[in-house]
Structure formats: C-alpha cells, structure tokens
Amino acid sequence: MAQRADEIFDVVNERDEVTGWNYRGEVHRLGLRHRAVHVLVFNAAGEVFLQQRSLLKDTHPGVWDSSASGHLDRGEAYDSCAVREVREEIDLELVSPPERWLRLEACGETGWEFVWVYRAAAEGPFTLHPEEIAAGGWFAPAAVTRWLAERPGEFAPAFRLIWERLGLNG
Fold it and tell me: For the chain, what is the mean pLDDT?
C-alpha cells in the first residue's frame, strides 16, 4: 500500500507507550515518536534481500533499505505489522511473525520511530510493490558492509543504524 498523508499512527512517549494518535504527515512534520518495523530476509546462501526505496517515498526516496519496512497503523501490534509489510512490499506470505532480532529506541536516525527489527528466511523471487520499491536484490553481508563503508549516503539512516547494531560483517 502506498503511503498516504491521512494514515493514522499511534503517538508514543519515551517508553513506547501510546499517548495519542495523529496523521502520518503531522507525525513526521512534528517529529513525534511513533512505531515501525524493519524485516531483513535472508536466503539459504546467507544473502540478505535489500530494497531500493521508490522515488515516490516521502522520506529517503531512492536509497537502499531493509527487505521490508513500515509504520504500525493505529492500534496495530509490531508482529502483525511485520507480517503485513512483507506481504505488501515484497509479496512474501508468512504464516507467523518472523523472529524478533533487535529493538531500536526512537532517535533521529530512525525518524523518531521505535523499531523492532525482524529476521525472516525466504528464497524469493519476490513481487515488488512499485509505489514502495524501485528495485531489489540479494547481497552478501560482507558486500553490504563494504558498500556502507564506501557510500553510506546510498542507504536510509535507519538501515545504517540497524546494520551497525547487528554487526553483520559477512
């Protein structure tokens, strides 16, 4: 599903407790804390699938990012959002939520999002949602680490933080 300014998100406090709600555009404009998920999909060869964000995205268009990511809708749980996002963005149907791997506190790099990062296994091929994703591909973790070191601006800030925290060197 393409992003819409009228999407409604839970607004949370510094402990990730819901304190209210607001529209997507206002949450981003005001820098309010809210919630998101990132899912990293790995194949049997140990490669990670990364997506290049569509140029239509309202934040960080055209840069590389996690396999799938997105905001929690108002009242939605992290696990449900992870399942929904991989289905919407790369057409991967999961029968249960993927493994929770890392939690990030809301900060500038995440766009003031509390983030749960998930790990999933799949081989593809994937059907990429054209309004969300411009391109995608499989990459060895060591190659991603080198790419990040050489050209960090080609990646979304939250992805750079995730990769650093996970210590994925390949």
Answer: 93
